Amino acid sequence: MSNDLHSLSHTKWNCKYHIVFAPKYRRKAFYDARRLEIGKILRNLCEWKGVNIIEAEVCCDHIHMLIEIPPKMSVSGFLGYLKGKSSQMIYEKWSNARYKYRNRSFWCRGYYVDTAGKNTKKIQEYIQNQLKEDQVAEQLELEFEDPFTGKRK
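and the corresponding structure tokens:
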């Protein structure tokens, strides 16, 4: 328990959130190299804000993240930053995406968020198995590289 605690000047905290968000129209936009690039973009943005990624998975049409957000930052504020800034970076990297998404935001307006509480291990397992479940559901036979760690799955 003590290694889960973080501290600010007058605060001890342990705030973990399970977050799921998707591209506009739930398009299947994350394959192969693009999947790795999205992971790198999101990892960099989280590092810039001081948010720790515990577990994450980029599926072909949505993203799961288990993250630690400091209490000085609101979840909605951080997600607004993450989705807004990543949209700009995606449009810089793949300029043809502007035509596909009609020059609007890349991500759907909404998102799912849940506090992890004491269920961190179960949520980590769920996120790790999410891509496998999607592959079985769609009967994909592709071997993927994890965009957050660079390891083959």
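(Above: one complete record from the training split.) The chain has four helices and six strands.
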